[in-house]
């Protein structure tokens, strides 16, 4: 089997109100709070340990840990109430708290204690987020780096043993391949014992060579999909060889039904071509020899791969071809997906029931079996596994189609939280007071000229007890801005998710095309919108 789909990362379902024009200083634009919280009042942390927000984004949500808060204050993490909106020209200018702050009850000597702003505390170590189904191994949190250095991008998710990068696409061999290679070696070795008994124990070496050559043919099948996708400017995440064949993970859909048809058909076509090549190579070879048996086996196996993948049901290549035809006839890609997915489910039931019956009756070339033996049990088990893979793949195709249908609803402008600018030495309590007064739910640290420097992390705010906030500067709770953390307010849908995936973080600065600050986008908000889009019926 082959194919692939881009699985955009998680996001949020609460959209903020549309941002209005400039405001007069001191005026507060009403901001919606999706969580029902009060701006500036942290929500209690949940979970069994500090550092876990209430809504932890799934592995597909871009997340990152920033620098830890002031060492003098205990920290815990959890989502602060969700603010909405963005700063506009005319918002109150940042400043610092006046003199006369009450003495720090925790400081020795009773005098006011200013937090050290010279050196930020060490970065929080990266912590992986839970994985979302269909998305293998992604979602590591990237630590923010002091000194304004951009965070290191997360390591490319693997999927087994890296074998190479043809056409720039990584090829992995999953651990399950070694299991199927051993199974093929054992089964094919038994057949060789009947055809070439003089080989003795060496038949297993010949069988192992056949298993490797067969999966090399599967790799050629997948490379055909990959080359076609790259030709159509579709990114390919990786190729993985696994238990039941290979998968080319193509991250975006084809733009037209014609391209979708070609993208699906080239795989089985290459398998048919390989079968023809092995047949031509078999003609001059003497039958009953090792080369003859190997070439005949590879020819037959490639024919089986081509025929199986041409079955008209998702997630097989034939299902994608059927989807392209229905898409062309109806003009609706979702209609094509629904039709091909339900045919795929019917195909799964047919495989579950029909394959053991065909094997037992001898219709597939083996001797008919009247009683139930080990071979019958193995055939039934194989049919059940194949049926489960087809049924699950068809369901995943339906879910992905529903997601892509609702992706345009994820707009950075609608999901952005309103923010107020504050200078680096502003006490946290004063910054939260200004945010409450302005109806904002995010803080942007700026310099004297108003240029944004960093974003105050909501998880860090929650970790500072209320009585400590007058002595904790916002700079100690902020994550330095990098180029990837600046997001255009015009981004939407899959383009927005691609930008967030490229630079995992917990918050992003949203700007207008002119460069003005529009607000702050939280990865948790995008996650909720993403989940809501998945749950909404088509």
UniProtKB/TrEMBL annotation:
It is found in: Membrane. InterPro entries: CBS_dom_sf, Peptidase_M50. Belongs to the peptidase M50B family. Residues 1-161 are annotated as: Disordered. One of its GO terms (molecular function) is peptidase activity. Residues 113-133 have a biased composition (Pro residues). CDD domains: S2P-M50_SpoIVFB_CBS. Keywords: Hydrolase, Membrane, Metal-binding, Metalloprotease, Protease, Transmembrane, Transmembrane helix, Zinc. Residues 209-282, 297-350 form the Peptidase M50 domain. This is Zn-dependent protease/CBS domain-containing protein. Its cofactor is Zn(2+). It is a multi-pass membrane protein. The chain crosses the membrane at residues 169-189, 201-224, 261-282, 294-316, 337-357, 377-394. Residues 11-20 have a biased composition (Basic and acidic residues). One of its GO terms (biological process) is proteolysis. Coiled coil: none annotated. Residues 43-54, 61-86 have a biased composition (Low complexity).
């Amino acid at each position: 089997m082959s194919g692939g789909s881009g699985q955009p990362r998680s996001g949020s379902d609460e959209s903020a109100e549309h941002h209005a024009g400039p405001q007069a200083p001191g005026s507060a634009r009403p901001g919606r709070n999706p969580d029902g919280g009060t701006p500036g009042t942290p929500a209690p942390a949940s979970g069994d340990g500090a550092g876990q927000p209430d809504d932890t984004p799934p592995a597909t949500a871009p997340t990152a840990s920033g620098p830890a808060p002031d060492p003098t204050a205990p920290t815990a993490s959890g989502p602060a109430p969700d603010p909405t909106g963005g700063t506009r020209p005319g918002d109150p200018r940042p400043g610092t708290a006046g003199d006369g702050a009450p003495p720090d009850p925790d400081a020795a000597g009773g005098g006011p204690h200013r937090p050290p702003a010279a050196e930020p505390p060490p970065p929080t170590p990266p912590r992986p987020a839970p994985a979302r189904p269909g998305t293998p191994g992604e979602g590591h949190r990237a630590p923010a780096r002091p000194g304004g250095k951009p965070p290191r991008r997360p390591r490319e998710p693997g999927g087994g043993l890296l074998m190479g990068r043809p056409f720039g696409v990584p090829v992995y061999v999953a651990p399950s391949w070694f299991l199927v290679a051993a199974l093929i070696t054992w089964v094919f070795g038994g057949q060789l014992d009947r055809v070439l008994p003089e080989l003795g124990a060496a038949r297993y070496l010949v069988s192992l060579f056949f298993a490797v050559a067969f999966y090399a043919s599967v790799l050629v099948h997948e490379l055909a999909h990959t080359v076609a996708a790259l030709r159509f400017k579709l990114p390919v995440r990786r190729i993985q060889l696994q238990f039941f064949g290979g998968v080319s993970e193509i991250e975006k859909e084809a733009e037209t039904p014609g391209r979708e048809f070609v993208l699906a058909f080239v795989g089985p076509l290459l398998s048919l071509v390989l079968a023809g090549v092995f047949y031509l190579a078999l003609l001059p070879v003497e039958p009953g020899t090792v080369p003859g048996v190997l070439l005949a086996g590879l020819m037959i196996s490639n024919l089986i791969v081509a025929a199986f993948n041409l079955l008209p049901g998702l997630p097989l290549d034939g299902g994608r071809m059927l989807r392209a035809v229905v898409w062309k006839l109806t003009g609706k890609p979702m209609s094509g997906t629904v039709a091909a997915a339900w045919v795929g489910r019917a195909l799964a039931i047919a495989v579950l029931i029909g394959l053991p019956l065909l094997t037992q009756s001898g219709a597939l070339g083996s001797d008919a079996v009247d009683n139930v033996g080990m071979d019958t049990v193995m055939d039934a088990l194989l049919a059940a596994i194949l049926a489960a893979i087809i049924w699950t793949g068809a369901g995943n195709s339906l879910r992905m189609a529903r997601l892509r249908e609702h992706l345009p609803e994820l707009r950075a402008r609608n999901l952005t939280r309103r923010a107020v600018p504050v200078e680096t030495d502003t006490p946290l309590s004063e910054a939260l007071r200004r945010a409450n007064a302005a109806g904002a739910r995010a803080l942007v640290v700026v310099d004297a000229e108003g240029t944004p420097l960093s974003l105050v992390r909501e998880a860090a705010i929650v970790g500072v007890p209320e009585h400590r906030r007058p002595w904790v500067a916002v700079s100690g709770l902020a994550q330095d801005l990098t180029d990837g953390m600046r997001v255009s307010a015009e981004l939407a849908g899959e383009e927005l998710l691609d930008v967030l995936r490229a630079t995992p973080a917990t918050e992003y600065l949203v700007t207008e095309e002119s460069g003005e600050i529009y607000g702050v986008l939280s990865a948790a908000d995008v996650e909720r919108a993403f989940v809501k889009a998945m749950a909404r019926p088509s």
